[in-house]
Design goal:
- The chain has two helices and no strands.
- It is mainly α.
- The chain has one domain.
- Helix 1 packs antiparallel against helix 2.
- The longest helix is centred in the first third of the chain and has 32 residues.
- The radius of gyration is 16 Å and the shape is rod-shaped.
């Protein structure tokens, strides 16, 4: 695979990671606000953390790839 094609694919995957992480976090917020139980808070916090990891890693990868 050509280096330029690989770089474009990695940029696309970084953007996809940011979008999916943000969407996953956004979908957890209504559930978190609807129920006020601690068990729901514990259950919903895991996808929120996973979304934050996806957003952070996607932004980091994109920042590294656009730097030249």
């Amino acid at each position: 695979m050509a280096p330029e094609l690989a770089k474009k694919l990695c940029k696309a995957f970084a953007v996809i990671a940011v979008v999916t992480g943000g969407a996953g976090m956004a979908l957890c917020v209504p559930i978190l606000l609807t129920y006020g139980k601690v068990s729901v808070l514990a259950t919903v916090s895991l996808p929120l953390i996973a979304g934050a990891v996806l957003v952070g890693s996607g932004l980091t990868a994109f920042a590294i790839l656009i730097r030249e």
